[in-house]
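We emphasize that the prediction below concerns an isolated chain of 281 residues; any contacts that depend on oligomerization or on bound cofactors are therefore not represented. The input was used exactly as deposited, without trimming of termini.
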Amino acid sequence: MIQKLFRDFSFKNILGIAFGCFISALAINLLLAPNQVAPGGAAGLAVVLYHLFHLPVSVALLLINLPLFVLGWYILGARFGINTLAGTLLLPAFVALTENLLPITNDLLLASIYGGIVMGVGVGIVFRSQGTTGGTPLAAQILHHYSGLTLGQSLLGIDFVVVALAGIVFDGELAMYSLIALMISIKVIDMVQQGLRTAKAAFIISDNSPQIATAVLEKLQRGATLLDGHGAWTNKEREVLLVVVSSSEVSKLKALITAHDANAFVIVTDIHEVQGAGFNR
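Result of the prediction step, given as a token string:
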């Protein structure tokens, strides 16, 4: 049992989870909890319990997350490991350490926007470190196990219930602010996980694909891949050239393509993250 818990142990990941939990704790204590903004999940429910029963947010988080971890372990097996346990314990710990800090603002809109941003950054870092903060992800997996709903549907349903509860306990306006924070947080989590360094992928269909590929290799120092294609209209075999470049190199790539084939068919699309030679390691 202990071996299963520590099977994915990595000191680097634990540091990342701790840092992400610390940032999330700042979002809760400096922006969200003082302004009664409950952005879904265990943190949102803890904010509601704090204002309803004066239960410290850190204690509420622990009371929510720890039983969920034990229940998830019992129902779903030892799939969570030390990273999930670390997030489950570290978030309440950092919330307790920072709960005496004064709020940054009393403006509800600013608290919702920046609370969602900071919370998203913190949770995103935890996810990138292969952990979770417990709470909603664990509850969603348990709900998914019993209901047949997808994980996405389960997460959305739980977050909606928490936001609705905030509307009942506080008022409808605060529930709308909580929804703003939730939407922003989800978007920022995606950005942190996918990376901020964007790139472009170009699909090039040309009779001169080999020559274009050679020019890309020599003049842009970028890799190129020739894919086998088949034209549905012409019923001819065609080569499709795939090239990935940075955003600043798109104009150079298009000029290079035009120089070899002015009639080439080119599709350029956004890429959120690239790993490999010449890009992120």
